Amino acid sequence: MSVEDALIFDEDGLIPAIVQDVHTGEVLMLAYMNREALRLTIETGETWFWSRGRRQLWHKGATSGHIQRVIEIWYDCDGDALLVRVTPAGPACHTGERTCFFRRLPSRDKPGREALPSTIPSHR
Amino acid sequence: MSVEDALIFDEDGLIPAIVQDVHTGEVLMLAYMNREALRLTIETGETWFWSRGRRQLWHKGATSGHIQRVIEIWYDCDGDALLVRVTPAGPACHTGERTCFFRRLPSRDKPGREALPSTIPSHR
Questions:
Q1: Rounded to the nearest 5 degrees, what angle is found at the Cα of A41, between the Cα atoms of A101 and A43?
Q2: pTM: predicted TM-score of the whole model, two decimal places
Q3: What is the pLDDT of residues B67-82, one digit of tens each?
């Protein structure tokens, strides 16, 4: 039995994978792996995911060149989430942003302050 | 329309929330929020989640005292994941570990090295 067998994949055969820049600590994206994507990630040392929208394996950076070199993979206490620490070759986000988390929710203390105001949904 | 309305909750009404220590950059846990948990998180400034196992709202730290003070909340390009940056009052994990991601998958380069060998599932 391998450690991978201890991981819990959901009813769709997926496990969420947090991708973090190992150098800056920045959280880059959240994506999903199936067993095959995880196997390919471990074997190739670059991130692979399962695209839920396109329903296919997705080698991150295959078209953009912005691959993510895997440094280490951690799994959580429940075995149902992964933390993939990487060295990214470029922006993680398809928008060109370094991280997919580039918009902030308004809070009581800091109402409406956002990284990119133009991308915020309309407020009425 | 509020920004929260732009978020995409899945068919179970949930959105995954990555919790990160704002000071160390350490990823602490992955949990899930429904709209009510997100509302409570924003209102109280402390993390609330939806426990999928217990099927109830869960105020992180309510029993342990290890609450997580919310500094800022980011959402991703698809609007289907949150990044909650916090100041934790104690360990995030119910095991007493600082982060729930305390076990590492073996890799080709570093086979089998783990943070806590005793917690690794049996290998046969």
A1: 160
A2: 0.87
A3: 999 999 999 999 999 9
Residue A54 is encoded by which pair of tokens?
């396109």
* The two three-digit tokens of residue B105, written as one number: 């998958």
Contact A120 B3 (CB under 8 A): yes
Mind giving me the DSSP string for chain B?
Answer: --GGGGS---TTS-EEEEEEETTT--EEEEEEE-HHHHHHHHHHSB-EEEETTTTEEEETTTTTS--EEEEEEEE-TTS--EEEEEEESS-SSTTS-SSS--EE---SSSTT--S-GGGSPP--
Residues from chain B that touch A30, judged by Cβ atoms under 8 A, are 16, 18, 76, 81
Q: Half-sphere exposure (CA, 13 Å, Cβ side) for B23?
A: 6
| Global ipTM | 0.87
pLDDT value of residue B113: 42
**Token pair 């934790």 is at which residue?**
B88
Contacts of B94 in chain A (CB under 8 A): 77
